Amino acid sequence: MAEVKLKRDFNAAVAETYDVIVIGGGIVGAGIARDATLRGLRTLLLEKEDFSCGTTSRSSRLIHGGLRYLKQLDLGLVYQDLREREILLSIAPHLVSPLAFVIPVSRSSPLQRAALPLGLLLYDLLFFRKSLPSHRRLSRSETLDFEPGLEPKGLAGSYLYYDCQVPFAERLCLENALSAAEHGATVLNHARVTGLLRDGSSVSGVQVQDAISGENYQVKARIVVNATGHWVESVTDMLGKAARPMIRRTKGIHLLTPQVSRHAVVLFALSDGRVFFVIPWQGYSLIGTTDTDYAGNLDAVEANAADVNYLLTEARRIFPAINANDIFYTSAGLRALAYSSRKPTNVSRSHKLVDHERKDGVKGFVSVLGGKITAYRAVAEQAVDLICGKLGAQAKCSTARTPLPGTPSVPESAVQQAAQEQGLSVEIVTHLSALYGSRYVQVLDIAKRNPQGTRHLCPHGKDILAQVQHAVENEGALTVGDFMLRRSMAGMNSCQGLDALDSVAGEMGRLLGWSAAEQQRQQDAYRTRVAMRVQFKSGL
What we know:
Elements: H1 10-14, E1 17-23, H2 27-38, E2 43-46, E3 62-63, H3 75-91, E4 97-106, H4 110-126, E5 136-138, H5 140-146, E6 155-165, H6 169-182, E7 186-188, E8 191-199, E9 202-210, E10 216-226, H7 232-236, E11 247-258, E12 264-268, E13 275-281, E14 284-288, E15 292-293, H8 305-316, E16 329-338, E17 352-355, H9 356-360, E18 365-369, H10 376-391, H11 412-422, H12 426-436, H13 440-449, H14 466-474, H15 480-486, H16 501-512, H17 516-531
Parallel strand pairs: 1-2, 1-10, 2-7, 4-12, 10-18
Antiparallel strand pairs: 3-6, 4-6, 5-6, 8-9, 9-10, 11-14, 11-15, 11-16, 12-13, 13-14, 17-18
C-alpha cells in the first residue's frame, strides 16, 4: 500500500498556475478538490485554518437521508442523500457504518402514530437499492428491552429503522484532502485567502497568506471556487459588488454526556416540534441539534445557556436521567443554508451553485451554498461538472467508485495479530483501525521505531504518542488543535484533551522545532479554544 502524505511546501505551491483553486477545506471544499484532481485538473486547495475545523467538525456525525425532509415533500433531497449514503458505505466503509435508530411513539400522539409508518415506508422505498434493513414496529415491551433508559410513562411502542454514522467526520474530510494530494493536488492548510486577483472582468487567482510564517503570495488559476461554508459571503465581498444575502446562517449545538442510550433515538421537541437525536458516540451520548438564526462572530461560535436548556428540557422528557451537571462539553457550528426567509427548520438543506459570470458578470468565479455532509460528494460532482464545462474539459466524475485512502476496513483477525505483534491491547488497535482504516499500519510502524510511541496520551482515551508523529509527518498537523481536534480523538474525550496537552505539545514541539515560548503559546491557544465549549455553564 502506497503511503499517502500531506507535504506542505508553500513556496513551491504558489509558483504553479492552476486550473482550479478551491477556497475552503471543509468537507465540500475537500470533496471538490478531490473530484477535480481525479478528472485531471491542476488543483490547489486552500484552508485558512485546518481541514474540517468549521461546520464539518460540529455536526451530528450522521450520514442519513433526512427522514424529516419527507414532511417537507423534499423527495429529491432525500433520494440524493439515500443514494450518497450507499456510495459512502462503499468508498469509506472504515469511516461510515450502519446505525439503528429508535423513534419512541407516545399514546398521546395519534397523528404521529398514523404518520410515522407511512413516512418510514416511503423512506424504505424511495431508494430501492439500499443495503440497510427496512423499518419495523416494536411493541412497548420490545422498545423498553431495546432501550431500557426510556421514560416508560405514556410509551406506546416505537419504530426501528437504519441510517449511518460517521463517528470521525473530521477524518472523512481529511481523507478527501489526502486523496486529492495523492492524485496530484496541492493541499495547504493555514493558508488564508486575503483577496481575489482580477484580470478585467475575470477572477484570475487569489492573494494568500501563509498563516504560519506570515508571508503573503499571489497564485494564478483559471477558475476560483468559493466553498467556504458560512464564510462564503466574506469571500464574495472581495468581488466588491453589493449583493443581497446569499446564505442563511443557523446555529446548531450538541451536548456530550455520559451514554444514556444503546442506540440512536429520534425525539420530537414538545416546544416547537423540531426533530433531534440522542446518539451513542465513542462511549458517550451526543445530543442535538438546535436550529436558530445566527448573526454573531463567525470565528467564535459557542453554545449559550438557552441552547443547552432547550436540549436538556426536551431530552429529559424521554431520558429523565440526563442532568445538567453531566454535560462534559458542548459543540456549536453554523449551517450555511441557501438564503430563504422561511423558519430556520423549514429552510431547505439542498445546495446551490452560483456562477458569478451569470450572476454578477464576473468570469472565473463560482460559489457553493448550502448542502449536507451526507451529500458532499454529489455537491462536489455537480460543482466540478460546472467547472469542467467552463474550462472545456470532458473528464467524467469517478469519486463514486474510487475508494478513500483508508479503505478497506480492517478485519478483526488483522487487528488481533497487529496487537499481539505490537504489544498493544486489541482495544487500542481497534481504535486506530477505526480512525485510520487500513492506514493504521503507518501509526504502528512509527510506534515500532519510537520507544515511547505506544504510550497513552490520556487516561480518558485510546490515542497513543505515535499518532502525533504520524499527524505531523503525514497529515499536515501544524498546531496542537490540529492534532487534538481533527487528527485524533484526544480532544473529544470528556477531559477535552487537557490531560494530554503537555505530552502532545512536547512531541509536536520536538517534531516541528518549536521554542519553549511557542510551545507555551500553542498550549494557551488550545486551552482558550476548548474553554468555549463549557462557556455555557456561566449562564446556567
